Amino acid sequence: MRVKALVGFPTLVLMLFVAASAQQPAPVKAPARPQVVAAIAQTKETQAAITPQMALQMLKDGNERFVSGTMKKRDLTKQVKATSTGQFPFATIVGCMDSRAAPELIFDQGIGDVFSPRVAGNFANDDIIGSLEYGSGAMGARVIVVLGHSDCGAIKGACDNVKLGDLLPATLASIKPAIDAVPNDGSPRNSKNYAFVQRVADKNVTLAVKRIRDKSSLLRGMADKGEIKIVGAMLDVKTGKVTFVE
Ligand SMILES: [Zn+2]
Questions:
Q1: What CATH number corresponds to the domain at position 46?
Q2: Ligand 1 mean position to 160 CA, how many Å?
Q3: Is the confidence at residue 21, as pLDDT, over 80?
């Protein structure tokens, strides 16, 4: 009796399941997610085969993967091993320190793919431009991107002329040329005016691109010869989407 009950129980469950399944509409099949396995890491050969236009496209594609949630599968531990004897990044991204603007994440890149000098307000001072000369002149990075972003605290701080700490005012002063370059249309010129803050952020990017070209004869020469590209871009922190300004 006891044995019979045990045997009968799963059969009953199975029957109930079959009956229940028959009443349910067929489940909608989710679209297959691309399971792209990333190359282990950039090598001298892969870097040499990348043109500036390709490098830019790789960042655009990476951002599309990031926005759509279809990032490449990466074995970062393997990438650490693969890059232990040398690095061959294809891009340098001058970004803000903002925690939402990490270049490797928003462009879906891994270890050894990109240089990412970062400073509050993503301006290009002499130290940053010197770093860019190293990145492209010595190390072969094919594209330089100055990446601004929406809702930037540093831009807001500069707009409000924030006085905090010993050195922050001097850092924020590097954003002042962008503030001065935005024409006065009568609207408030402070952090409460979102449109103004964004206009300053946009201008800050174009001025940084211009400053890189103006201050570095090495990078300007490489850009003019088509060996590298220097472009601006803007990250929308609401969506993760990057819009390039070429
Ligand atoms: Zn910022």
A1: 3.40.1050.10
A2: 14
A3: no
pTM for this prediction? 0.85
Measured in angstroms, how far is the CA atom of residue 120 from the centroid of ligand 1? 6
**CB burial readout 180-210, b (16+ within 10 A) else e:** eebeeeeeebebeeeebbbbbbbbbbebbbe
**Cα–Cα distance for residue pair 114/184, rounded to 1 Å:** 38
Q: Is residue 6 part of a domain?
A: no
Q: Which amino acid is at 93?
A: I
Report pLDDT digits (tens) over 153-188: 999 999 999 999 999 999 999 999 999 999 999 999
Rounded mean pLDDT of the chain? Answer: 90
Range of the domain at 81: 38-245
3-state class (DSSP) for residue 93? strand
